[in-house]
Amino acid sequence: MNFSHITWLDDKGRIKPPIYLYLILAFIARGWCVLIISLTQSSDRAGLVALFYPQKADFIMALLAGAGALLLYIAIIAERKRSPNWIRPFFGQLKWCLLVLLTIDGCLLIERSINSHHLYSWSMGLDGLILFWSLLYLFKSIRLEHYFADWNKGE
Asked: What CA dihedral angle connects 55, 48, 125 and 56, to 10 degrees?
C-alpha cells in the first residue's frame, strides 16, 4: 500500500496546496516580485528594474500578466481559510486560469524573443524551460488535480 498521499492533507483533512503551485504563481508574477524588491532598495530603484527588464514595455506587460497570478494567489488564500463561498465555483476553474496565464506568459516570451531579433539569452532560455515545466506540471500532477477538486466537495 502507498500512503504517500497522507502528507498531502492538513490537520482538518483537506488537501494542502502544492509548493509547486506557489512557485508557478511566483514565476508568473515575477514582475511584481522585481517591483517589490526594487522598492526595498533606496539608492537606484529604476536601475534594479532595468537589470531584469531592459525595456520598459516588457516590465509593464509583466506586471499586467502577473496581476492574474496575484488574483489566483488570493483565491488560494481564501480557499485555505474556506471563508467566502462565492469563490467556490471559481476555484474549480483555477487550472484553466493558470493555463491562460501561462499562455500569456508564453506570448510575452515570444514577443521578447522577436524584440531581441531572436538572439539567445539565458533569461529567455530559462523562462522557456520553466514555462514548459509549469505546463507539464499543470496537466500531469495528480496532487494538483485533487487540490483543485477538493473545495468543490461539500463540507
From this structure: -10
**Alpha carbons within 13 A on the beta-carbon side of 67:** 5
Q: What pLDDT score does 83 carry?
A: 67
Which residues 6+ apart lie within 8 Å of 73 measured at CB? 22, 25, 29
Number of CB atoms found within 10 A of residue 103's CB: 12
pLDDT exceeding 90 applies to what percent of the chain? Answer: 25
For residues 76 and 79, what is the distance between their CA atoms, to the nearest angstrom? 5
Count CA within 13 A, CB hemisphere, residue 6: 4
- Specify the pTM: 0.81
- On the question of pLDDT at 1 being above 70, the answer is no
- Rounded distance between C-alpha atoms, residue 18 and residue 154, angstroms: 21
